Amino acid sequence: MESNWVIEEARPENIPAMIEFWQEIDGVGLGRSDEPWALEIMLTNNPGSCLIAWQGETMVGTILGGFDGRRGMIYHLAVSPPWRRRKLGKVLLERCLKVMRQRGAVKVNLFVYRDNSGAITFYEGLGWVQREDIHAYSWDYPAGFEEN
Ligand SMILES: CC(C)(COP(=O)(O)OP(=O)(O)OC[C@H]1O[C@@H](n2cnc3c(N)ncnc32)[C@H](O)[C@@H]1OP(=O)(O)O)[C@@H](O)C(=O)NCCC(=O)NCCS
To answer: Is 89 in the pocket of ligand 1 (CB under 6 A)?
Structure first.
């Protein structure tokens, strides 16, 4: 297969296809932030750093880069299995990092499942450093929180 993918900014109308794409990818966890309304906020707030790679009409890769004014965060870097190991993941990541740097980011974080050895090798090979000094904490809004 010849690789001549095109990388474009993700648009709101792509959201249903992005969700379908991620549902097929091991290593991408989907949650409440992957509801269409939440993804639309992500795309609106992060111009240029949420990207889709297309091979013709077919989605073959994605990345969501979010910059909150202090740190950048990478979510849902995913490449379709037949298109892996052709540097598409690297290209998507580099494009996303470049845009977030232009917007002011000086440091970028991401989460990887501990058993995702492929992604760990990928990131470490690109110079990403696993933090040993930090526990990652999360807090989920309970249903009805906004009514209190
Ligand atoms: C991780 C992922 C995005 C990498 O995409 P990719 O396009 O295959 O990666 P690249 O071709 O740019 O890889 C660059 C280098 O990273 C390393 N690498 C990538 N995938 C690897 C794997 N599965 N095992 C070991 N090394 C790997 C290799 O050194 C590779 O260079 P090489 O092919 O010349 O040896 C892809 O495997 C994927 O979509 N995984 C499932 C989703 C996921 O886990 N995403 C990360 C969640 S945070």
So the answer is: yes
